Amino acid sequence: MFEAEALLRLFINFEKIKTMKKERFEAITDAVMAIIITIMALEIELPNFNEEGINEFIVQIIIYIISYTFIAILWINHHNIFKYVKTVDHTTLWINFLLLFSTSLIPLATRTIDKTFFDNKSHILFALILGSATLFYFLLDERAIKLSENKRTTDTRKMNSIATLLFTLAIPLSYVSIYISSAIFVLVPTGYFLLPRKILNKNPTD
């Protein structure tokens, strides 16, 4: 009973939050991202030192690199989009927690696709989780634009839209070929990686 009342008071106090300093907001994000990456690293299994085991290990490392790169890009972009924001509001907090929740499922998706790579259901799970994280990042980016009153480049918004669409398309396309969905999983992080250079070339004086 006491625990229920304590949780209720905590929820009520949280609902009263109108704004929060960006530093606390970024601190919880940094902590969760670090834990997620650590969990993924701990789940890497050493191979049997034969040809089949080494091949499986190579596939495992490639999948890990894709997931790691995706999380790294999320973290870097998260920092960049809130660069000019001083405080965050209640809506932004909830969207951020939804982003962290979906991101926290990436180790599960990574392990599943590693164990059953040739089963398209693992590709569907991977696409759903990465797609949901991309969608919540998209929504968070829009909130950051509103809070900072800083117009972001059209390329960023286009990339967010394209990435969400591609992950969505990866679901039905995995029924056609798992190699098509695999290509999408590589293509999206690559696009985000190349995007800052494209923006920098357009704005050499920034």
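The above is record 1. Record 2 follows with the same two-line structure.
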Amino acid sequence: MERFANNSLGPIASAETRRALGALAEERPERLSLAGNGLVAVPASVLSLTSLTCLDLSRNALPCLPSSLTRLDRLIVLRAHHNALRALPPHLRHLACLEELDVAHNALTLVPDALTELRALRVLNVAHNAIDRLPKALFELPQLDVLDARGNPVAATMPLLRESTSADEESNDGDETELLSDGSSSDWWAGDDRGASELRSEVTAL
């Protein structure tokens, strides 16, 4: 994996940094980590790397994800945990291949309805934000294995959401979404404090 993690980039606007990122386009990388670089914006050159399937933007200072992120339409894994995100762009609905989205430890107050259109989504980590509601349709996503909402106001009401969502289902053939919350219901697994990305390593391995 191409790694420019932990402050290895230097000033994001520097000519050297732009050349380093620009050169990647010719290599057509599938995986890229920009974690821990203090980024306040996603470099434009990254958004031209349409071969990417895994992108790690975690542990930066990003206030938002650009709508142009949808140019990366092969993305399977997108990590943006430990940033300063206040909202998720509805354009994320166009990332049809996305299987894991990790936006834990941000300042999100809601999960947009647009995420319910991500039919390939298997892991959604929104832990430790300020989310007070979740779209009911999230619980109906056919591939969703893990929904981690611990550390949010909504965690206390999630058992009720699950009950109301499953009431109309005749059978789930034994398959259930693994729901991580702060609740104590026996139907919920609180687990330890690992992120969903660690729980589904086969999806997240870079």
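Confidence is low (pLDDT under 50) at residues 160-164, 167-172, 183-206.
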